[in-house]
Amino acid sequence: MAVSKQSWKDYVWLVWFLIQIPVIFLVDATHFYPKWLYASPESPLHFMQLIKDNYISTYNDPIAQWTAETATQHSSWIPLFLSIEMLFSAPIVLYAVYRLGVKRAGTTGANELLFLVYAFETAFTTLVCIHDVLYWDDAVYNIDLKRTFVFNLFGPWFVIPAIMFVDMCSRILSRINAADAVAVGKKMQ
């Protein structure tokens, strides 16, 4: 399989994937860790609880506050998205850091397809979160706070993967066009 040279865009994606690691494992994954690891001040990973508590006290994000005890039909999608993040996104992020950072290799068609699916999943699940913001209680979340969620907190997590999706689409299309050109050339001979 042909490997493309590592481009400046690969370095941008590497930075994105590096940012994802602490977000996934220190913030979003806390629902999956046993509480004894982070909940009490004596816990070895209590700093994760402090990060989450600070975020919640600053923004009052109902998605970050989701628990099985507070779940409603409206929020039933949250554990599904968190599970997708842990079972699908996290391994891809770790692989991408290895591939683009440690190995410093360009991408193959298979990598580009994997990153395309990752980018779609990340953009789509974030878009659902953005859509959800529109339905939050106006008495609790004023328009300025909703704008902060949409543009500052969730927006980049939608826009950057959307750009990655377009980049991976263009790379895959270039590979397909090159293969088609070779196939047409062989038929002409």
TrEMBL record:
One of its GO terms (cellular component) is endoplasmic reticulum membrane. It is a multi-pass membrane protein. It is found in: Endoplasmic reticulum membrane. Keywords: Endoplasmic reticulum, Membrane, Transmembrane, Transmembrane helix. It comes from the Eukaryota. Residues 9-165 form the EXPERA domain. InterPro entries: EXPERA, Sigma-2_receptor-like, Sigma2_recept. It holds the Pfam family EBP. This is Efficient mitochondria targeting-associated protein 19. It comes from Diplogelasinospora grovesii.
